[in-house]
């Protein structure tokens, strides 16, 4: 169910619990400020999530409130993760939903990396 990206951060959301190690994940990359792991319900041959470890609800929240170190680490983690999973040579798509109208389902910033197959048009109609 889509969420309001203006809500207060809930430290018990599924991604916060993954960061704390309460829920297992198939990790791809872990840095000081970021974590990348395989999606449990992949929508493409390659489907990985990259999240900041900090308490950020959305891209808007993260870009306004994260430290420069967190932002740099996260952006680098997205690129490095794409290389690690083999998405980079043929191309890949990044997706970060923010808010109800975009279909954001977890109130923790996350970027999807899709690849490994043709991905079609940018938006479903």
Automatic annotation (TrEMBL):
A motif (Histidine triad motif) lies at residues 108-112. Transmembrane segments: none annotated. Pfam families: HIT. InterPro entries: Histidine_triad_CS (IPR019808), Histidine_triad_HIT (IPR001310), HIT-like (IPR011146), HIT-like_sf (IPR036265). Coiled coil: none annotated. PROSITE patterns: HIT_1 (PS00892), HIT_2 (PS51084). It comes from the Bacteria. Residues 14-124 form the HIT domain. PANTHER family: HISTIDINE TRIAD HIT PROTEIN (PTHR23089). This is Histidine triad nucleotide-binding protein. It comes from Sphingomonas astaxanthinifaciens DSM 22298.
